[in-house]
Structures
1.
Amino acid sequence: MTQQKEKERTLVVIKPDGVQRSLAGEIIKRYERTGLKLVAMKFMLPTPEMVRQHYLVDPEWLRKVGEKSIAAYQKRGQQAPYDDPVEYGEFIVSKLVKYLSSSPVVAMVWQGNQAVGIVRKITGGTEPLTSDVGTIRGDFTIDSYELGDAGDRAIRNLIHASGTIEDAEKEIALWFKPEELIGYRLIQEQILYDVNLDGLKE
Ligand code: ATP
Ligand code: MG
């Protein structure tokens, strides 16, 4: 029987740079091979309004993204371009609107035990310069806060992945209609989740 834990869902969006760099297949493969189940996927061009709504599903996000960016500069002993996190957040969201609506993206929903955390782990930290080796952002691209700011643009880091279960639920509702999420049984779920392994031996 499927338990609640196995039903956790997260939204992944392969951003325009991921599609333009022909990395969509490689990125999907990395999530697929974990054992997570793909329950929805579409190729689409997001509207600027949708991108803005997407980032503002968490009312605290503007402040958090600003604080995280200021902290990254401070860690290197450098001065961030903004002192006020919310002002920095407003700058970032305006750049994200332009970035994500510039070219098609692949939106997906992955489901399974700890889907949000597993996907974030594989995706890697926000800034590719400091994302761990072995993560998608660490392995496949090279952007940094400094380069983004120098170019007056968003950091190009290939992927969006939901940060919390709550954000994931809101984001999925924004990107997909309920009927686009497909409930089905995946054969491998037996080995991933079943309590006993009876019936495998011949
Ligand atoms: P995402 O939400 O896209 O999965 P994340 O959770 O790692 O990424 P957030 O803090 O939510 O990062 O920031 C959202 C996105 O905004 C980042 O993925 C990046 O593209 C962009 N971004 C974040 N900080 C900056 C910054 N200081 N300058 C430019 N772009 C930024
Ligand atoms: Mg985020």
2.
Amino acid sequence: MKKITVLGATGSIGVNTLDVLARQQANEWQVYALTAFGQVAKLAEQCLAHRPAYAWVGSAEKAQELTQLLRSQGSKTEVLHSPADLCRLCDAPEVDAVMAAIVGAAGLPPSLAAAQAGKRLLLANKEALVVGGDLFMQAVRDNGAQLLPIDSEHSAIFQSLPDDPARWQTDVEKIILTASGGPFRQRNPKTLGQVTPEEAVAHPNWVMGRKISVDSATMMNKALEVIEAHYLFGFAPEQIEVIIHPQSVIHSMVQYRDTSVVAQLGTPDMRVPIALGLSWPGRTSSGAAPLDFKALQAMSFEEADALRFPGLQLAWAALRGEAGSTCVLNAANEVAVDAFLKRQLPFDQIYRVNAATLGGLQPGRISHIEDLLALDQEARAFALGQIAAAVTQAA
Ligand code: NAD
Ligand code: MG
């Protein structure tokens, strides 16, 4: 039996992963560890259903709470809580695969630990790659890890590219990421300042965590995905394009030198890329409903409006900037989205904070992951300063 650690088990991707695992043959996968930051009751339920050897939570108090809950139900799952333990649950010799589904840069250390230990790494946590960049990919290559993208667009591109990575540079003209356009695709851009967190997290096609839902509304999610695609597949920034496709049926496309376009299609259900990550190079059941072409009325495409979605362009600005720029952009965005969700920053100011931080902070020399972690902290402090200034100005 293969063993898997699911990071961020209580989140949207984590829950979908456990659903797909439950659909596999009983002797195929064993859950080695489940982790969550808080959400103790939900994690306890998952532990009782999947019987992992270990569970991890973000503090000693939560660990005590979880242990009590588990013991009262007769569960033997051992509960851990230190940052070092989180990494150990990813690089332990018994572990075959890790699902990286923590949200934000907080997921970088355990994802990197899995890469450094040469595991199969199912990467949903795009921020880890946006922060880690080339150093992260170097760790994957140096240690023979198998990096399988879980982000639906990157899974689609992975499936549409030639099997032989040596052909990616010779045969491909460009890759085209599709974007739904989120909840504000048709909203008057002048009213974006009044958007509430409730409106921003209500995505038309996908049910996701709060942070990625806000990112989809600003299209910063697509900006992070452009950066993610660059690091994952090695294409130059000019070879990566974005097109709005509101139905989310085509999950992304590859255009070849001869103009042929190869795409991957399906219903919008994250269990499809998750199932592929588990079964690759084979295929297994995902639980998703198949696409019904007869019911599909139309597929449409439109250009992303730069006035409505100014954040999208920051991807190319960061990729053309110095090493570490994508880390700076990600940190600013995490801080700005958090402030927006706490109703401290208007929706349309997220872009301003991101652009000001990207333009205002010099990354310095980046040789190690530790340099990036320090830069991440510096960029967060800078972005917080920008938010404070924006709030003072508005008052
Ligand atoms: P979510 O908010 O629903 O879940 C996040 C999980 O991470 C939770 O289990 C939470 O407890 C845990 N977590 C949060 N902060 C943590 C910390 N500091 N330390 C340890 N654990 C922490 O998020 P989600 O929607 O499942 O997204 C997870 C990741 O997958 C994100 O990077 C997102 O961009 C990516 N992703 C999600 C989707 C989707 O459909 N939800 C699609 C593509 C990519
Ligand atoms: Mg995506």
